[in-house]
Design a protein that fits this description.
This protein has 124 residues and is mostly helical. Helix content is 77%, strand content 0%. The longest helix is centred in the last third of the chain and has 29 residues.
Length: 124
């Protein structure tokens, strides 16, 4: 399967792993308010789930199973964006990191959307 090229690396297994690690690094530096603690738990789950589901997709039992797992990857990336938007980030550097993570999650979401489209409609 061909992935749309960008300035990012193309190994999605490694890229999704790096995304989850970057989210963890980011949230470890955040203020520990009551709201942030709960949001942090959610964003760690959803960001890690992107890569975990991609690994599952690579072991899929067929085209439909593969497409379903890729759809879950896309859904988890979208959910990560939601939680990242809710996080209380203080300071310019934290805000830059948050925006960078949101951009990465958005790119992953688009990549997985394209994969689903090509899997279910290979002629288009």
């Amino acid at each position: 399967m061909t992935v749309v090229k960008s300035s990012k690396h193309y190994d999605l297994e490694e890229r999704t792993f790096s995304f989850a690690k970057e989210v963890i690094d980011f949230v470890n530096a955040l203020p520990k308010s009551i709201a942030n603690i709960e949001i942090i738990k959610q964003v760690i789950r959803s960001s890690g789930s992107v890569g975990a589901n991609y690994i599952e997709a690579n072991e899929a039992l067929g085209k439909r199973d593969f497409a379903m797992r890729i759809k879950i990857c896309r859904k988890e990336a979208k959910e990560s964006i939601y939680w990242l938007r809710l996080i209380e980030a203080r300071g310019e550097e934290a805000e830059k990191r948050r925006q960078s993570l949101i951009s990465e999650a958005t790119e992953l979401m688009k990549i997985f959307g394209a994969i689903v489209g090509k899997t279910l409609n290979p002629k288009s």
